[in-house]
Structures are given as structure tokens and as C-alpha cells.
Q: What sequence folds into this?
């Protein structure tokens, strides 16, 4: 598979935090505009590397620099345009009403601005975008339930899912069952970060208590054969983010990452960028990781995109349209049996 074929491979993203897409240069500009010192999170034009808690603090500090509707519309448009140029035709972005509020923006105004940026990217580049409202685990159970009630409000443009993000070591999955029930009853798709830092027990408890159709990361499930069998049998989709896992030290080397083992165990897998500039990655780089560092064939990479479309939080007609675009893009690539 040549670099050119990888560039033209149709791609989709299910796991990306909107505020986590801000480039260091943009954060530096916003900081200068608001007179904020960000030398604690940026060095030499890049995000400083650190552990998970350090990352979460940097994420909160950078997010607080995006304060207006224009800021959010432009952040959204810019990211979607960038991944469309990498071959993506569908993206789901995590949006956080708590981060918007902390930056001084009412959540409904924030969603409206993000949706406006998504509409512009869709018009300019054809990329479809949906929004997943997240509750942030380390902000507490009440905040996560408030985020779920907000997500369940009618008339939020492009919002089609609810998720749980933040520090997985805080609280137990069952603490968030009510939030997930509220969101599920409102017809939203459900996803939860689990098995990113915590081990297989946390993944099992998350599946039991929150009943998400997708798991953010889920990679540490690989440590438990019985759990892997369950994930494969139940068709739970894993939103795997290798670059994030490597940057945050979950795995010591590219070869140690379990992406290939998850695929071989029969799990339904997608690849995603999480917070790309924080982890010096991109959606295309994640697909390239799968090919170059894990030795996965082009057909497997195409399967990630197919799985993302199957698991997307979209209505029936949109899914059919995405499937048609996926098949057309593969045909244009001349992809089929033997093209590995
Ligand atoms: N919020 C932003 N990025 C995150 C991650 N990788 N895990 C949990 N919460 C997050
Ligand atoms: Zn994430």
C-alpha cells in the first residue's frame, strides 16, 4: 500500500475532543489576545508532554482560551477541513458544556457556534459531522448528570450522542448510570471512555452499568481474554486512539500497542486521534500507525472506516449515504480483494 493510497483511503473519526484540536500556535495566539501566560503548557511551539493528569490540566487551560462563538465556529471548521483533506468524510466531535461554561459561553450558544462551523465545513468539503456531548468524570456525578440533561434537550443542532470523558480513575462507572439513562431515554447514542488507564474490571463495569454501544479506548480490555470475547460477541465498538495511548505512556512503544491484537480477537475497532496536537498525531497518522507500526493490511484499515460508519451516531438515511460514499471512495481507489 503506497503513501498515496493511504492518503486516498476513505476515513472516519468517532473520537475527537473539539477543544483538543487546537494547535499550539492557535493557543498561543488566543493566550496573547487574552493576556494569559501559557508557558506552563507550551514549550518550543508544542504542547509540553506529561502524564494523564498533567494533560487534563493543560486541556482545561487551553480550552478556557476559546471564549466566543467565532472562536468555536472557527475551531470546528478548521479541524473538519483538515481531516477532510486527509480523506475523512464523517466525524463525531466531543463537545463539553462544562468547558464552554468555564470559558464564559452558555452551552446552547456554544453548540450553536460549533454547529455553524460544522455546517460551513460540510458545505465547503462535504464532511458530515455530528456532536457528542460529554460529561467530565472528574467534575463529579452532578455535573455529568447536568451534561446528560443538557444533551437530552430538544433542538440542539447536530447533537446525536452522549459520552463520558475525563479522569477514569475518579468514581465508579455505576455512579454515572443515571446520566446514561437520561441520555439513552432521549434517543442519544452512548459512548464512555473506559479501559484507557483503568484495567479490564473498569471496562466490564462500564459495559454493565452504562450499556454504551461504543467504548472510548477500551484498549486495556486486551488484558482479559473473557472480556475480549464478550466485547467481540456483543459487537461493542472500540474507539482506539493509539497516538494518545503512546503519548500518555499507556504503552511503552508502538509495537507494544494492542491495536492488532484487538483486531485479531474479533473486536470491532476504529482508529481515532483523540486530541491530535496534544499528542503530535492526526487522523491520517493513526491509519498510518496501523499499517506501518502494526502491519495491518489496507483491507483492515478500510474495515476501521466501515465499522465507524456502522457505529456512527446518525439516522438511517445518513448512514446509508455514508455507506454509499464509502463504497464509491473504495471503488475509486481500485480497492478490492488482492489490493493489500
Ligand atoms: N478529555 C480529553 N481527552 C481525553 C482523554 N484522552 N481521556 C479522557 N478524557 C479526555
Ligand atoms: Zn478521548
A:
Amino acid at each position: 500500500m503506497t503513501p498515496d493510497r493511504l492518503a486516498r483511503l476513505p476515513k472516519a473519526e468517532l473520537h475527537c475532543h473539539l477543544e483538543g484540536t487546537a494547535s499550539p500556535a492557535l493557543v498561543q495566539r488566543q493566550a496573547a489576545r487574552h493576556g494569559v501566560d501559557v508557558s506552563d503548557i507550551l514549550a518550543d511551539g508544542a504542547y509540553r508532554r506529561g502524564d494523564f493528569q498533567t494533560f487534563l490540566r493543560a486541556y482545561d487551560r487551553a480550552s478556557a482560551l476559546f471564549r466566543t462563538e467565532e472562536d468555536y465556529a472557527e475551531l470546528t471548521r478548521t479541524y473538519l477541513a483538515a481531516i477532510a483533506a486527509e480523506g475523512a468524510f464523517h466525524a463525531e466531535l466531543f463537545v463539553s458544556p462544562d468547558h464552554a461554561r468555564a470559558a464564559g459561553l452558555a452551552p446552547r450558544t456554544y453548540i450553536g457556534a460549533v454547529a455553524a462551523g460544522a455546517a460551513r465545513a460540510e458545505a465547503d468539503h462535504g464532511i458530515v459531522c455530528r456532536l457528542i456531548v460529554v460529561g467530565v468524570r472528574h467534575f463529579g456525578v452532578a455535573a455529568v448528570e447536568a451534561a446528560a440533561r443538557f444533551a437530552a434537550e430538544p433542538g440542539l443542532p447536530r447533537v446525536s450522542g452522549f459520552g463520558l470523558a475525563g479522569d477514569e480513575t475518579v468514581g465508579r462507572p455505576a455512579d454515572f448510570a443515571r446520566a446514561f439513562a437520561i441520555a439513552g431515554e432521549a434517543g442519544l447514542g452512548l459512548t464512555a471512555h473506559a479501559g484507557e488507564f483503568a484495567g479490564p474490571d473498569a471496562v466490564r463495569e462500564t459495559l454493565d452499568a452504562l450499556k454504551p454501544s461504543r467504548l472510548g479506548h477500551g484498549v486495556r480490555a486486551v488484558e482479559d481474554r473473557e472480556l475480549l470475547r464478550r466485547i467481540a460477541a456483543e459487537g461493542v465498538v472500540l474507539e482506539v486512539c493509539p497516538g494518545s495511548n503512546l503519548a500518555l505512556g499507556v504503552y511503552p512503544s508502538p509495537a507494544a500497542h494492542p491495536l492488532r491484537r484487538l483486531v485479531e480477537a474479533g473486536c470491532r475497532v476504529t482508529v481515532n486521534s483523540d486530541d491530535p496536537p496534544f499528542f503530535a498525531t492526526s487522523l491520517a497518522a493513526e491509519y498510518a500507525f496501523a499499517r506501518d507500526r502494526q502491519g495491518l493490511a489496507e483491507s483492515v484499515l478500510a474495515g476501521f472506516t466501515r465499522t465507524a460508519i456502522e457505529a456512527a451516531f446518525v439516522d438511517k438515511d445518513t448512514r446509508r449515504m455514508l455507506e454509499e460514499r464509502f463504497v464509491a471512495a473504495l471503488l475509486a481507489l481500485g480497492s478490492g480483494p488482492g489490493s493489500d
Q: What stands out?
A: The chain has one domain: 3-333.
